[in-house]
Amino acid sequence: MRYRRARSLLYVVGLFWLWLWLGGAALMEGLYHSPLHAVLAMYALAVVIPVSIAAALLAGIQMALTRRRPYTAVVVKLPAAPQQPPLQPAHWWYGEKVS
């Protein structure tokens, strides 16, 4: 489960960097009319970029440490289950009263 979570985190970080590379400048251009919003967006990107690098490194280490190992299980055939006795007939009051 840890391997899958680390792989998912790497996908998310990769998508973030792809968005940043392709659309980050358009976001800043759209916020040009409000200096406060532009400063907040720049601050958010300045915080998220180093955090994403650290998260990607930790996810890569997690994937390397918890990689999947080949299955070494042995299949053991179990004896067949005994046959069940036939079902008992229903009580007399179940007859036609139940629809």
UniProtKB/TrEMBL annotation:
Entry keyword set: Membrane, Transmembrane, Transmembrane helix
Transmembrane segments: 9-28, 40-61
Name of the featured protein: Transmembrane protein
Lineage start: Bacteria, Bacillati, Actinomycetota, Actinomycetes, Micrococcales
